[in-house]
Amino acid sequence: MLEALLPWQEVMLVNLLKAHESRPMHAQLWVTPVAYGASRLAQRWLLARMCTAASALRPCGLCDDCRWVLAQTHPDVFWLAPLEAQGQIRIDAVRELRSFVDRTSARHGWRAVIVEQAHRLNEHAANALLKSLEEPGSQTLFVLLTDRLVDIMPTIRSRCGIWHLPAPDRVDALRWLRGRVDCSEQQLNQAMAYARSMPEQAELVLVKNWLPMFEGLWSGIRQLTQKRTHASIVVSGCKEIWQERLLTDALMQWVEDLIRTHSVLDSPEPESFLHHPELYRDYTELVVRQPRAVERIWEIWHRLVRVRDELDGNIQPALCYERILTDFTALF
User: Fold this and answer.
1) Is residue 226 situated within a structural domain?
2) What angle do CA 167, 5, 23 make, to 5 degrees?
3) Does residue 134 register a pLDDT over 60?
4) Which residues pair with 142 in a beta bridge?
5) Beta strand ranges found along the chain (DSSP E)
6) Which CATH number is 229's domain given?
7) Which residue, of 164, 179, 201, is where some domain finishes?
8) pTM for the full predicted model
9) What is the pLDDT of residue 174?
């Protein structure tokens, strides 16, 4: 089924197509969070080039080429992505890509390779992909997607045209969400905050009814500061959101809010500086109780950054979060 582009992606697609026409390059690296709809944009970019029955910006969705692209079975398109949610892209998959690149086109004379979450290429896979980028074969286009440019091998970056795709305007994002999910304005704003302003991620939070899970997590943290529960109990109720990286982001936001609360206590509208203004009273209570804790809370924030990066590896998330929550609440 041909999904409509997200409203803010229309202009992106036009710019990407124009850029390729004016300055063709065999490899592009799109830097954008997955939850901004990167895969959908890549799919529509393919349709714009593959569909023979309609215009580039309005593919028909019905011809053979469109149907194959939508099903990810087009003979001239190779999709490369991690097999598991937090897994790596391994060299075996890139070897298959190399075999694809060496073949001739089955349809229109050119082929495309889409690499999703390219930062998850392990070292051997990245080196193998580099060889394909250096020897791409005739009429082969590569599009690499990532939200972590710093983790892409420099030699791969140097062989790609790099596009930083902007985040959608918040007003546009909220308008889109209102048309997708039936909920209150407060819930919309809370979901956007926990999703770091990524609309599709915010939609997931609302559709999965995860806002009560975040509320339960914060309540658990408050109980931990009062020594009325254990970190393992608090973490055990949050597995769904840690698998989507939302738990780390929520904890980082609360830490940032506590630091900001300490800085703006005497400001006329302190809530306006916060990710989650509805928690301002709780933040104030914690900061007033232990004002010196804020000086040490940055250590927790940096640990959360490391945990977020290590989720792609083989750490034990539950144990990591338990230790962080224990150390975090011990400050108060």
Assistant:
1) yes
2) 70
3) yes
4) 27, 113
5) 27-31, 77-80, 111-115, 140-146, 161-164
6) 1.20.272
7) 164
8) 0.79
9) 93
